[in-house]
Amino acid sequence: MTRSPFLDNARARALFLDRHGLAETPSGTGRGEDLRGVLQDLGFVQLDSINTVARAHHMILHARRPSYRPAALHRLHDTDRALFEHWTHDASMIDMAHFPHWRLKFARHQATAERRWQHKGRPDWLTKMDEVLRRIADDGPCGSGDVGATEARSSGGWWDWHPSKAAMEHLWRTGALSVTRRDGFRKIYDVTENVIPQATRAASVDTETTVDWACGSALDRLGFATSGELAAFWALITPDEAKRWVADGLAGGTLTEAEIGLADGARRRVVLRPETLDRPTPRVTPRLRILSPFDPALRDRARAERLFGFHYRIEVFVPEAQRRYGYYVFPILEGDRLIGRIDMKAERGADVLAVRALWPEAGVRWGAGRQARLEAALARSARLAAVGTVNFAADWLRATQPPGT
């Protein structure tokens, strides 16, 4: 029996980081076409409202382009219309060229909603959809807070929001409305005809084409994957569709199976393109970078833990007394290793980036060279956060915490 090709853990990590734009020494302007190129390489950047240092989407781009500033992303989306905002696994900025494939997501969301209506009855917000569309068409872009002022509010999911807000969300999820900009972090909607370029709206692709694009483009950005990881990348297709795509690729020779070495010494079966095996292992810069918890390299927590042996959990919703580290703690990447996590916050009133605590991973020695690289990374983070100085708490360097503490 012929054994599958094997990529050891070091090679798998290097390939993974290279495909996520974290292997090379950063260069580039971080704006315009250079920034769009970063987004095209990544596929999308996740949006998140937490602004402890800077919002997640800004930190993701800054980790790859230290000269990046938030205005550049807003310009690409709001003015240049090079990006659109919609859902992948969460709200994200996506290259405009991919918009035609989101018609599948629009149609499937509509079908899911109709099944709920048949099961539960037609919710009252359905009657609001025409009213919301007319309001925006007649009066211009607005946010959910600008409609339904007299309607009862709810703190539940979007299905339970006040009728006008739920109608607006449904219209966005099904493609009738688009986000034209954000005011702060508040979505401002317009009719899609005013946001998405006409040529892009006119493009038509069938389901088979979208499945092929979703799987192929995900694999190109991951380097290697299981069918489940391919389906989850854009969250656009079903696991069964991804399984069929993989089976067809293996049968046709456009894909091959391989095994990758994991951090704990185990192996995992994946698929990749045959030519990936022929390419040299990417060289990874020794640079130290502070990553967003929502960085594309970390958003699949299980995958990152398998590759790097780094367990990470967002503790925003964990009661304070039960937190192992802190409210919003940032992973630290150095070379091809995740070496620790840092609790820091931009205190803008004091013009300070306050470092509260840092926990190195087990076996990581915190010497003078590593400290210098950390301070350089913190200086970059301070510039992104628009604060002038970095301050360390007296007890900032903490002992490594064993699992379960």
Task: Summarize this structure briefly.
With 405 residues, the protein is α+β, with helices and mostly antiparallel strands.
Provide the fold topology.
Blueprint: E1 6-7, H1 9-19, H2 32-42, E2 44-46, H3 56-64, H4 70-79, E3 83-87, E4 91-95, H5 102-120, H6 129-139, H7 163-173, E5 177-183, E6 186-191, H8 198-202, H9 207-222, H10 227-234, H11 239-252, E7 256-261, E8 267-272, H12 274-278, E9 288-290, H13 301-308, E10 330-334, E11 337-347, E12 352-360, H14 368-385, E13 389-392
Helix pairs in contact: 6-7, 9-10, 10-11
If you had to describe this structure to a student in words, what would you say it looks like?
With 405 residues, the chain is of the alpha+beta class. It is 39% helix and 18% strand. It is built from 14 helices and 13 strands. It has helices at 9-19, 32-42, 56-64, 70-79, 102-120, 129-139, 163-173, 198-202, 207-222, 227-234, 239-252, 274-278, 301-308, 368-385; strands at 6-7, 44-46, 83-87, 91-95, 177-183, 186-191, 256-261, 267-272, 288-290, 330-334, 337-347, 352-360, 389-392. The chain has a five-stranded mixed beta sheet, covered by helices on one side. A hairpin with a 5-residue loop joins strand 7 and strand 8. Helix 9 (207-222) packs across helix 10 and helix 10 crosses helix 11 (239-252). The model has no long low-confidence stretch (mean pLDDT 93).
